[in-house]
Fold this sequence. Notes:
Strand order of the largest sheet: 1-2-6-5
Number of helices: 4
Structural class: alpha+beta
Largest sheet: 4 strands, mixed
Strand content: 25-35%
Distance between the termini: 20 Å
CATH topology: Rossmann fold
Number of domains: 1
Order of helices and strands: HEHHEEEHEE
CATH class: Alpha Beta
Amino acid sequence: MLPSDINDGVDCRNLPYQDSSIDCVILDPPYMEGLYRRKGTELAGSGSHYRFRSTYSNGEHTNAAAGEPKYHKAVLAFYLDAGKEACRVLKRFGMLIVKCQDETSSNTQNFTHVELINAYQSLGFYAKDLFIVVRANKPSVSRLIRQKHARKNHSYFLVFEKKSAN
């Protein structure tokens, strides 16, 4: 991707590249379910964090009427659609690097990195490596009354190699 593409708002689920034409794709979509809510007024990144929403989201809510998934399932669906598109544009043995973070959503622990590894393997990717990136500061917590799960102070870089031809 060229720097000019970034300002054009290219959707990682619909890349403007030919099949099997790219050597490497780096995927870093928003991985917090707050950017995939059904009401625009409930989207994360409001108030003083508006730049976060405008940078990591198109600011649109998910479409409940169309039966789109919500919460963590919406995050996962986005990653899976982006993975399918990466598979389309990557050459055989091309590399896909994916940044993700596990999350707790609706009081349920979701090991997103495991879900993605399993799903991407079914697309024809080989999970070649994994890096764990630890935050220097404490993770923020909002509206927490009673902590039930460990706070996430790390994210992952998953490294995949495309094994199958398109």
